[in-house]
Fold this sequence. Notes:
Layout: H1 5-15, E1 21-26, E2 29-34, E3 37-43, E4 46-50, H2 53-60, E5 65-70, E6 73-82, H3 83-89, H4 91-102
Antiparallel strand pairs: 1-2, 2-3, 3-4, 4-6, 5-6
Amino acid sequence: xxxxxxxxxxxxxxxxxxxxxxxxxxxxxxxxxxxxxxxxxxxxxxxxxxxxxxxxxxxxxxxxxxxxxxxxxxxxxxxxxxxxxxxxxxxxxxxxxxxxxxxxxxxx
Length: 108
């Protein structure tokens, strides 16, 4: 996953006042972690959100959302969302959706 400085800046800005979020280089891009668990990340022209398998089907109904696949393997519960679609729905809404799932995970 290649990083996109524009997407990186938007996520960093949206999460800048969050003391409970940590930024880390992963998968060739940037990811933001909540309690050590991946919350979201950046990609070329798109955002990545970890919404969990229970919220996946509902989240996929939003325009521009698709399941992440690395090396042909689908990563259930993790979605790519095209930039324009994520911004139209609301970046904070996507972050909140991801956080709803990630907060259920044990801290690492």
